């Protein structure tokens, strides 16, 4: 079976994790601090705050901004459900906006269509690694006095106008889930341009403690902490951070290989009439975290039909990006572009170790199924 994704993990990551275990300090500590600094430096951020997942990063971002009951947060439905859930966690109401049919991302027009006097923030998602138009969304949010949070879960290594995506963003949330290009098993990061916010986020992720456990230990003396506000247990471990440091060093090679494979997909898939696939927007580049395609109008079957047929032929694919507003946890609204994309798209296998022979098989089998 050709998998849809396979993390690129090896002996370097295993040895890094083993070094942490041997050190005796496995909780949040010096390696987390090193990973935060290295990650922020690599992606043009002033500060990095490591957390337990991208979901907790989004939760912390909205909590930090004071978003709560009575507020509305504009989010794309065309995203993993965690994006909408984060608004619920702080007591706010997620309001779904439609997306651009080519990029799958929010636009100023789709956001403006759902903004109300209660709107307090927008969570823009760089969907599947395709960057949204940052300048356009920032300009809109500035005019309407709305906070903009970047959901950069899938966007490690993507670029916007020649710089790393979300570089300089007020708040950006990142994921290190195994389906991402850089993985720590589970884990996430908040990056911010605001030093005061970074300091508060570090307290909030650790129950609101005024002094972290690592700093208290390193002081060499008695140092009692205070709990200045109600916080959370959203910490990352040093084991995860050690793996993350190794993964970060490998990232340029991962991105180069994925873009090479994606370019090859583009050339081969051009032979299938009516099929459309993800590509770079004119203002940036995608890391091809997910290589999604939209089925031709001429194909009368469903995505489920295609997924089942591929599975029977030894190819593991996935349905396209979900539509959160169609799930029982949320109320249905009319989002025609989102609904078309989620019902007619699927994600093809793409991973660093993928061979050309495996890629040939994926394209050949897909072409036969669609015919």
Describe what you observe in this structure.
InterPro entries: DegT/StrS_aminotransferase, PyrdxlP-dep_Trfase, PyrdxlP-dep_Trfase_major, PyrdxlP-dep_Trfase_small. It comes from Actinocrispum wychmicini. The active site is at 180 (proton acceptor). Keywords: Pyridoxal phosphate. The chain is an alpha/beta fold and 371 residues long. It folds into two domains: 11-248, 3-Layer(aba) Sandwich (Aspartate Aminotransferase, domain 2); 251-370, Aspartate Aminotransferase, domain 1, CATH 3.90.1150.10. The protein has helices at residues 11-23, 30-42, 54-64, 82-89, 108-112, 134-143, 195-204, 213-218, 238-269, 303-312, 336-344, 356-370; strands at residues 47-51, 72-76, 93-97, 119-125, 147-151, 159-160, 163-164, 171-175, 188-192, 276-277, 284-285, 291-294, 318-319, 345-348. Helix 1 runs antiparallel to helix 9 and helix 9 (238-269) packs across helix 12 (356-370). The radius of gyration is 21 Å and the shape is globular. The chain starts with 10 loop residues before the first helix and ends with a helix.
CATH topology type of the largest domain: Aspartate Aminotransferase, domain 2
The span between the termini is 22 Å
Helix content: 25-40%
Strand portion: 5-15%
Q: What strand order characterises the main sheet?
A: 1-9-8-5-4-2-3
Task: Look at the structure and give the mean pLDDT.
Answer: 96
Active site: 180
Keywords: Pyridoxal phosphate
Modified residues (N6-(pyridoxal phosphate)lysine): 180
GO molecular function, one term: transaminase activity
């Amino acid at each position: 079976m050709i998998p849809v994704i396979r993390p690129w993990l090896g002996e370097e990551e295993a040895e890094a994790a083993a070094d942490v275990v041997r050190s005796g300090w496995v909780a949040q500590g010096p390696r987390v601090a090193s990973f935060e600094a290295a990650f922020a430096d690599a992606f043009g951020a002033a500060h990095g705050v490591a957390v337990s997942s991208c979901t907790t990063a989004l939760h912390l971002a909205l909590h930090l901004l004071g978003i709560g009951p009575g507020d509305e947060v504009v989010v794309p439905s065309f995203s993993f459900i965690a994006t909408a859930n984060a608004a619920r966690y702080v007591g706010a109401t997620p309001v779904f906006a439609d997306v651009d049919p080519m990029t799958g991302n929010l636009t100023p027009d789709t956001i403006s269509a759902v903004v109300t006097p209660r709107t307090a923030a927008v969570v823009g998602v760089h969907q599947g690694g395709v960057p949204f138009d940052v300048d356009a969304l920032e300009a809109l949010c500035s005019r309407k006095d709305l906070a903009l949070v970047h959901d950069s879960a899938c966007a490690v290594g993507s670029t916007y106008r020649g710089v790393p995506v979300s570089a300089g963003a007020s708040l950006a949330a990142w994921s290190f889930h195994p389906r991402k290009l850089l993985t720590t098993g589970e884990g996430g990061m908040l990056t911010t341009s605001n030093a005061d916010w970074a300091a508060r986020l570090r307290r909030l992720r650790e129950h609101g403690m005024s002094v972290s456990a690592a700093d208290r230990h390193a002081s060499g003396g008695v140092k009692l902490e205070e709990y200045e506000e109600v916080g959370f247990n959203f910490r990352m471990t040093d084991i995860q951070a050690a793996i993350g440091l190794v993964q970060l060093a490998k990232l340029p090679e991962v991105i180069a290989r994925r873009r090479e494979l994606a370019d090859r997909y583009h050339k081969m898939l051009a032979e299938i009439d009516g099929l459309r696939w993800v590509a770079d927007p004119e203002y940036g580049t995608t890391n091809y975290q997910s290589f999604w395609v939209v089925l031709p109008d001429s194909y009368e079957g469903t995505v489920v039909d295609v997924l089942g047929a591929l599975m029977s032929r030894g190819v593991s694919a996935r349905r396209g990006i979900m539509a959160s507003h169609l799930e029982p946890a949320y109320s249905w609204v009319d989002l025609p572009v989102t609904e078309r994309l989620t019902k007619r798209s699927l994600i093809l296998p793409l991973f660093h170790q993928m061979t050309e022979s495996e890629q040939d098989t994926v394209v050949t089998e897909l072409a036969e199924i669609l015919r």
